Amino acid sequence: MPDKIMEVKDLYVRFYTYEGVVKAVDGVNLDVFRGETLGIVGETGSGKSVTTYAMMNMVPPPGKITKGTVIYRKDGKEYVLTEMPESEIRKLRGSDISRIFQEPKAALNPVYKVGDQVAEAILIHRRREMLERALESLQGSLVGLKRAVLERALKSEDDLLVRIVKRLPLVRRLYWSPVKAEARKEVVKILSLMGIPDPDRVYDMYPHELSGGMQQRIVIAIALSCNPQLLIADEPTTNLDVTVEAQILELMKELREKFGMTLVYITHDMGVIAEMSQRVAVMYAGNIVEIADVYTIFKKPMHPYTKGLLEAIPMPGRPLKDIPGTVPNLINPPSGCRFHPRCEHAMEKCKSSRPKLVEVEPGHWVACFLYHDEAEVSEE
Ligand SMILES: Nc1ncnc2c1ncn2[C@@H]1O[C@H](COP(=O)(O)OP(=O)(O)OP(=O)(O)O)[C@@H](O)[C@H]1O
Ligand code: SF4
Ligand SMILES: [Mg+2]
């Protein structure tokens, strides 16, 4: 049995809007295995981002998880994210489960130096480590007061008195300058790992002074700064040109191997899926319709939607074939199998019953009545 780092069970997400209730995610079941790269693919609006927001229990309002469980596993312990208080989940976000957002411009603050933004992420989750390093770097030097302040802080970082005293300007300076110096060293190390030339100079630059590709490397650096176990990359190369995209994909693969991370990679591009993933989950209109290893998805796809996505890949000498129709409105989604209005194989049953995601051969799951008769019963 593969070791599951995350399990999503029977997940439902709704957005309560003026126009009506958007049934964005509807009964998703998904396992993520430790160390793998799982690709999630599907057209726009299929629920890729929302599903992975739910994996961090951070669905933005007016959205809500209305049913289902998300379990994160670490060191033999289970964390049921859908039941934990926000203050506890916050400790896992960033340090254990991290996310690279779709749009680097939105993820970076335009008025802060990029290096400080990476340092901030480090200091939120690895402050103690930076404090220890700062103390070490002071060993042997004649800065008694500075050492005393750092030693005291290290002993009782959470002590209320220490927290108050640290606000005094002199103490603040004595405490912060060595800790920040250590964080800066760590940031420069990470930026150079990201393939950023002259990282010490880039540290002091503002986002607008960097190209889109460089900005995205900074966003990745922020996500990786706390050595997460599970990294969710939500279309991190969408707005980059193809050569920069290729560099970022290469970098992500290298980093994944280097850190032994588990990666969930979201894209609507089947080419990127082939390049990045070991296993693939195909989403359509809030449902997962097929899961298999990447080779099977490309060589032996089963679901008519997956086949449609593959036929829509441009190939020399082959006419482009679009999937007919459009992505449905999720306020009033089609009954039964949500793909039925666009499916050339649709049967009477498909209009009234929703096919369950069933393992039809080892590791190959499909939600389609062409392969089994099992209908979904766990409606909300
Ligand atoms: N803040 C929101 N308010 C209302 N509906 C939302 C909100 N965010 C997402 N949705 C709806 O939830 C559904 C799933 O959206 P999601 O963003 O997960 O799609 P996606 O697969 O990530 O698409 P894309 O490829 O465009 O990023 C869509 O119908 C979308 O309109
Ligand atoms: S269940 Fe029916 S409508 Fe849905 S994909 Fe399969 S054949 Fe097509
Ligand atoms: Mg998205």
Would you summarize the structure shown here?
The chain has 380 residues and is of the alpha/beta class.
Structural account:
The structure is a single chain. The protein is an alpha/beta fold. It has helices spanning 48-54, 86-92, 104-107, 114-125, 127-138, 144-155, 160-165, 169-193, 199-203, 212-224, 242-259, 270-276, 294-299, 304-311, 348-352; strands at residues 4-17, 20-33, 37-41, 63-74, 77-80, 97-100, 230-234, 262-267, 279-284, 287-293, 358-361, 364-366. An eight-stranded mixed β-sheet has the order 6-7-8-3-9-10-12-11, with helices on both faces. Strands 2-1-4-5 form a four-stranded antiparallel β-sheet, covered by helices on one side. A hairpin with a 2-residue loop joins strand 1 (4-17) and strand 2 (20-33). Helix 4 crosses helix 8. The longest helix is centred in the middle third of the chain and has 25 residues, at 169-193. Bound molecules: adenosine-5'-triphosphate (ATP), iron/sulfur cluster and magnesium ion. Adenosine-5'-triphosphate binds at residues 15, 17, 22, 24, 42, 44-50, 60, 62-63, 268, 330.
